[in-house]
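User: Please predict the structure of the protein below. I'd like the answer in structure-token form so I can feed it into my own downstream comparison script.

Assistant: Understood. Taking the following sequence of 364 residues as input:
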Amino acid sequence: MDLRRAAIHCFAFMVAAMATTCASEWIPGKLHKLPWESIDQQPLDVILPLDYEPNQKWPLMIYYPGTDGRPQGGLMRRYTQSRGWIVLGMGYLERGRFRYNEENLQAEIDALGKVLKHLNGELSIDRKRVFVSGFSKGGWIAGMLIERLDWLRGGMILGAGIYDKQRRPPKPFNNPKWVYIGLGETDGNHVMGLKAKGYLTKLGATVTLDHWSGVGHSFPGDDQLDSLHHWLAIAKDGLASAGPKADVWLKQRLAQLPEKPFEAYLAIRALREDAYVRALSPAQEKSLEDRLTTLRKYPMVAGEWAVEQALAKILAQEGLNRYVENLRECAVAYRALHKGNLQGHFGKLAGQHADRAEKMLPKE
């Protein structure tokens, strides 16, 4: 019996083991360890928010860790600030790289289903607000589950994208989904994250793409989490609830714009990509675009805008496929763009993408 079959076999005992955690033991704010019969016997994390009340329904955020990670809910507890969300730190039937095929994916889906069935009997979970998230390997898994499971409301793909080897035709979502994609600017998975935004948008999802400046394949500092927090607020309470807060946020940010044109351009560009933009009025969204158009008329901004567009074209080309020949061609293009614009913001960013692409190429 191989490892995966052994893990699936162990699930026959999981529900009985879970019964040791009864409703009277669920304490708000506490990290609960839930028995989990995976290969390495690591329990799952379940964390109730500090404001948990059993007489109302709560959204659930499922989190899958990276390749060698074990079930953990601490990251999502930090991101949700211990309020408003139930967090499930989920595990895998096998540690290590995920070996994609339909059988393996279905086994992970079945495992998650059994865990959720137990938790639905114990906790006051709003089944219309169940989201999945993950980083690296967990991000790839989250992307597949968002696409496959119609009952998921959406989720967060961190440091990953959509697995391009899935052997099934894309199917438009029956229900609207909310997706957040967070990527380090120099993450090796950066282009696949960009590709995931386009792919999921075509399926009907509302996607927020967040670029973490100066970050590789890791998490950003707290100073780059505004859009993530805004996305969580919208996912939890809806656009209507977020509207007034988004309006105040926009006014405050516009009042704090730098005086220098290019610095103002970068600031407005970041505002336009924030999750709160979804909660603004069409007129407010247009005002941001109008400001960008005006700023692009300044000579320095116009030059940077040209480099930004050139960089976007190379990134799009890299996303077409994962062949070595294409990656090598893109690496050369990134490097040429960098050398031609050594002192510019987007020229330096092109150099970072050249470094990333060159590291991914096989050594000759």
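That's the full token string. The radius of gyration is 22 Å.
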